[in-house]
Amino acid sequence: MSHRVPDPTCRWCGGADGTIVLDLGDQPAADHFPAVDDPGPDPVHPLRMWLCAGCGLAQLAEDPTTPEEPRGAEPDALVAQARDAVARVQAAGLLPEGGTVREFGSPHGGSWLDLLGAAGLKESPDEPADVVIDCFGLMHAADQRAGLAERFAATAPGGVLLLQFHTLAAIVSDGGWNALRHGHFAYYATPVLLGMLGELGLDVTHGFLFDLYGGTVLLAARRRDDDGPRDQAGVDALLEREAALGVTDPGAVGALEEAAGRSAEELRAHLESSRAAGHAVLGYAAASRAVPLLNRAGIGPDLLPAVADASPGKQGRRFPGVPVPILPPSAVAERRPDEVVLFVTDMLAEMRRTMPEVEANGGSWVVVDPVVKRIPTASGGSPEPR
Question: How far is CA 103 from the centre of its chain?
Answer without folding.
Answer: 19
